[in-house]
Design goal:
By secondary structure, the chain is α+β, with helices and mostly antiparallel strands. Helices cover about 50% and strands about 10% of the residues. It is globular. The two termini are about 30 Å apart. Bound molecules: protoporphyrin IX containing FE.
């Protein structure tokens, strides 16, 4: 465990204690608003919770139990207090589908995300709405074509290989911290197109401060505070990217930054310099924490379920190449695909998504008044026993051909969201996870102590707070199979 994670663990312990206190506060259940007379809609029921902070701490400290208790009590639509807001929570595939498909354009992403991460990621594509969002997405899609991904994989492979080859065999190897560092180094090379060194370190520090700004408890520009540090870091990132745009536009790099500079819409439209800066800062965030959570929780579950680890290793060793290509990924890793899906189901890395109702609307027969802040609970939805038998058990078999896992609902499994804002980086994430796991499975084996459960906190989704120590062992020549 690294010293870096100790303050985080102390914070999580404090939050747990405080959550225990606030959860006991007697708070009266009431309707969020009364449905219009004559409508057959039901009111959204819930309670505010502790004065001012509402149920915020319980929803961070025990997000799954909290959400499942509310689902059992109120059903798929309920409300709870959270730092001055009343937040409507949606759970279960039907409610999620209504918000994602957004048939009547009742839900705004801009307004939903603004109070959560707006100052740090404003005008990132996920924070745009409707026609403007569609126009930006058409241009951005050009940076996620198969040939673009091929270019990113070529940039990504050497760093992954080099870093993992240098990981030491250790009884308590801090996996989450290490994979985060690997992905930060990779972001410098693949996203920004810079070489590793002091510049990349400064970039990583500013990126880290920007992401953490959005997770600050005291959400005001108080000098020295997390929020203020995030804002200053964002300003430095803006200057850093803006200064490089002319050279990127003129060059022919294959990194994501260069691709955004060159991307064109159907009629030749391109991003302005300001758009590129905003999208770059957002993309770094969208890719980084989500991928770090996915890889870490996969490694954790494979460390507990070593028979699955062995099966995945056999699959990885079956490929004669130590370096993955995009062609290898096309159906060549059915077990890893199934295990990755199961991790996304269990630990949705983008766990809660936000919207705001622009008009009075309805979800699953409930009346949602205009201006309601809405949280789409992806994480807990994929852990509901109504849709997933034995939902807390790691079982990649659910996703293997032949198993009886046909989704009972199209949005029962939706870790990448749905509708027009569905993740643009799904294939990128898939490629990245496989490139890391391919190296790890071939060159190491690992386990976690029986009964070990990582201390978790909440970032973009459920996130290890203890660095995720694993016992990592290099596979010696005696373990190697022929041809590897
Ligand atoms: C396991 C990894 C990932 C997961 C689970 C994930 C999940 C999601 C989800 C649920 C959304 C929808 C947000 C909403 O509806 O408000 C989203 C949006 C987005 N993601 Fe990902 N993501 C992952 C990795 C990535 C990566 C690697 C990239 C880029 C390289 C990326 C780029 C984006 C973008 C650009 C959007 C916004 C799309 C839009 O608004 O049109 N994501 N992601």
């Amino acid at each position: 465990m690294t010293a870096l994670t100790d303050p985080m663990q102390a914070k999580v312990r404090m939050q747990s204690l405080a959550a225990g206190v606030t959860a006991r506060y007697p708070s009266r259940e009431r309707p969020l608003a009364h449905p219009p007379a004559g409508s057959d809609l039901a009111p959204v029921m819930g309670d505010y919770g502790f004065p001012l902070i509402g149920h915020l701490l319980s929803s961070i400290v025990e997000p799954l139990d909290f959400a499942r208790r509310r689902y059992a009590r109120f059903g798929p639509v309920s409300w709870a207090g959270g730092v001055g807001f009343r937040i409507v929570s949606l759970m279960g595939p039907e409610a999620l589908e209504t918000a994602w498909i957004n048939k009547d354009k009742a839900f705004s992403s801009t307004r939903g995300w603004a109070p959560v991460i707006g100052p740090f990621f404003h005008r990132g594509i996920m924070l745009l709405d409707f026609d403007e969002h569609r126009d930006h997405r058409r241009i951005m899609q050009q940076a996620f074509t198969r040939s673009a991904l091929d270019g990113y994989l070529a940039l990504m492979r050497p760093g992954i290989r080099r870093t993992i080859a240098n990981w030491p065999a250790a009884p308590r190897f801090p996996f989450y911290s290490s994979v985060k560092q690997l992905l930060l180094d990779q972001a410098a090379e693949v996203f920004v197109g810079t070489t590793l060194g002091p510049e990349a370190d400064e970039l990583a520090a500013d990126f880290h401060a920007t992401v953490h700004g959005g997770q600050a408890m005291i959400r005001a520009d108080v000098p020295g505070g997390t929020w203020a540090r995030g804002l200053r870091a964002r300003e430095r990132l803006e200057r850093y990217f803006a200064a490089q745009i002319p050279a990127r536009r003129a060059g022919c790099g294959t990194d994501l930054f260069s691709m955004l500079c060159h991307s064109r819409g159907e009629h030749g439209e391109r991003f302005s310099d300001t758009d590129i800066v905003n999208h770059m800062i957002f993309l770094l965030m969208a890719a980084h924490d989500t991928s770090a959570i996915a890889i870490s929780m996969l490694v954790y579950e494979l460390g507990r379920n070593t028979e699955w680890q062995d099966r995945l290793r056999d699959e990885a060793l079956h490929n004669a190449n130590d370096e993955l290509t995009l062609a290898d990924l096309d159906g060549g890793y059915p077990l890893l695909d199934a295990a990755f899906d199961e991790i996304l189901r269990m630990y949705a890395p983008a766990g809660t998504l936000f919207r705001q109702a622009l008009t009075d609307t309805e979800v699953a027969g409930h009346f949602i008044p205009r201006k309601s802040q809405v949280a789409i609970n992806v994480y807990a939805s994929m852990r509901l026993a109504d849709w997933w038998p034995d939902p807390d058990r790691f079982d990649p078999g659910r996703f293997l051909g032949g198993a009886d896992v046909r989704p009972v609902h199209r949005y029962a499994f939706a870790p990448f969201g749905g509708g027009v804002h569905k993740c643009l980086g799904q294939q990128f994430a898939d490629m990245n996870v496989k490139a890391v796991m391919h190296q790890l499975l071939r060159h190491f084996d690992w386990h976690v102590p029986a009964g070990y459960r990582p201390m978790m906190t909440w970032g973009t989704g459920p996130t290890p707070a203890d660095g995720l120590p694993i016992t990592l062992r290099r596979r010696g020549s005696e373990h190697r199979r022929s041809g590897t």
